[in-house]
What we know:
Structural class: alpha+beta
EC number: 5.4.99.9
Shape: elongated
Strand order of the largest sheet: 1-2
Pfam family, one: NAD_binding_8
GO molecular function: flavin adenine dinucleotide binding; UDP-galactopyranose mutase activity
Strand content: 15-25%
Keywords: Isomerase
Low-confidence stretches: none
Distance between the termini: 65 Å
Mean pLDDT: 84
GO cellular component, one term: cytosol
Helix content: 10-25%
Amino acid sequence: MLVLERRPHLGGNARSERESTTGIEVHRHGSHVFHTSNEQVWQYVNRFTEFTSYRHTVWATAGGAVYSLSVNLGTICAHAGRRLAPRRRGR
C-alpha cells in the first residue's frame, strides 16, 4: 500500500498531538469526530489508532445559572426551581 502525505506527519488534518506541558490532546487543524454504528468498520479503524472518548454536550447560561441544551424536562425543572413530571395521556 502506498500512502502519500503532504504534511511531514501521517493523518493530514485529522492528526492530533499531546501538548508537552499539560498532556492535553490538541487538534492543530480543528477537532475531528469519527462515528459509526458498523462494528466491522469500528474494528478495522481500531487496528490503526486509539480513540479518545467524546460525548457532545451543549450548555447555556441565563440569569447566572447554567442549563443543558437542548431544552428538556430537566432543563425546565432546573430553570423553574421545581420538580416537574410529564403528564400521562388519558389521566
